[in-house]
Amino acid sequence: MSDRVERKRLLMMKILRESGSPLSSQRIQEQLTSRGMDISERTVRFHLQALDNQGFTGYKEKKGRFLTPRGLMELSRAHVYDRVGFLSSKIDEMTFRMTFNPETAEGTVLVNLSLVEKRYRDALGDKISPVFSSGLAHGSLMALVDEGESIGESVIPRGMVGLGTVCSITFNGALIQAGIPVTSVFGGLLEIHDKAPDRFTAVIKYDGTSLDPLEIYITSGMTSTAEAARNGNGLIGASFREIPSSARDRVKETDARLKGRGLGGFLKMGYSSQALLDIPVGDGRTGLVIAGGLNAVAPLVEDGITIDSKALSGLIDYSVLFSYEELSSRLSRLK
């Protein structure tokens, strides 16, 4: 198979992965065209049939093609995503593809994925719940994925369980759908003092890294999220966004709707053209501080449990999410 043909087929698989649901050949052709590829629907069907034969895709009657677990592993192997690119580009793309509507509580949301060995499952609920209940996670909902199942581009390995936490970029998606432009500036370590955001002690700009800052801080053991949840003082992962000051009231309305759906919003909002937690903003801009979705699993690392986390792991349907209070009971039902 030529490199050109392989790139086409991998891009089709990538589109199926990002959709989170089966797509028709016509819809796939439209997606390819929107990305600058001149291709007919007939040619798309030809390549999809070849992918079916390889076991990378399957067909669901009246719904369309879907990506199989084997296809997901092939994408991971091929490094379809531009892994050397900047994180800001991925944030923009994933934000655009989110479809969640706060009014109807329908559509897809962005999630992070953390892999944990099943032998730790009895301890997970007690370690994770305090972060949610203290408001230091992003929202109050999460997902649970068993071994052999998939989320985004990742298949859960044998002996592991996947914890899906709502990514804070979901907030960006909701703002974009409301017609409000938003800029993700950086991710950092946020000091919590007396249960309130106090200052950033370290930052990494999104347009200068290919890795998620919160992944770096958590895996490096730089957070004290469990302590912050327990007594109101500690270091957590958070991000800084900017919005037009003229949209401030509309952002507050969107924030309230998202929180009402359990998806979380901002921890702190600044004022027009004024620094927020000593972080300057441009003229006519307002700053936002938002808790990181991966904060929920940070106490596991802080307690010496090895996890493998990936921010912006993929899109899942909102209906799959459940309250963190159900985690322990759901874990107990796993084989």
CATH structural class of the largest domain: Alpha Beta
Nearest-integer average pLDDT: 89
Overall spatial form? globular
CATH topology heading of the largest domain? Alpha-Beta Plaits
Q: Catalogue the unreliable spans.
A: 80-85
Q: Please summarize the sheet with the most strands.
A: 5 strands, antiparallel
Write down how many β-strands occur, each being a DSSP E stretch of 2 or more residues: 14
**Order of SSEs, N→C?**
HHHEEHHEHEEEEHEEHHEHEEHEEH
Integer-rounded radius of gyration: 20 Å
Q: N- to C-terminal separation? A: 41 Å
What does this structure look like?
The protein has two domains: 3-78, Arc Repressor Mutant, subunit A; 83-335, 2-Layer Sandwich (Alpha-Beta Plaits), CATH 3.30.70. The protein has twelve helices and 14 strands. It has helices spanning 3-19, 25-34, 41-54, 69-78, 87-97, 121-133, 169-177, 213-219, 225-231, 248-260, 298-302, 327-332, and strands at 57-60, 64-67, 108-117, 141-145, 150-151, 154-155, 160-166, 183-193, 196-205, 234-244, 268-269, 285-291, 307-317, 322-323. Strand 1 (57-60) and strand 2 (64-67) form a beta hairpin.
Describe the SSE topology.
Elements: H1 3-19, H2 25-34, H3 41-54, E1 57-60, E2 64-67, H4 69-78, H5 87-97, E3 108-117, H6 121-133, E4 141-145, E5 150-151, E6 154-155, E7 160-166, H7 169-177, E8 183-193, E9 196-205, H8 213-219, H9 225-231, E10 234-244, H10 248-260, E11 268-269, E12 285-291, H11 298-302, E13 307-317, E14 322-323, H12 327-332
Antiparallel strand pairs: 1-2, 3-7, 3-13, 4-7, 4-14, 5-6, 8-9, 8-10, 10-12, 11-12
Helix pairs in contact: 1-4, 2-3, 5-7, 6-9
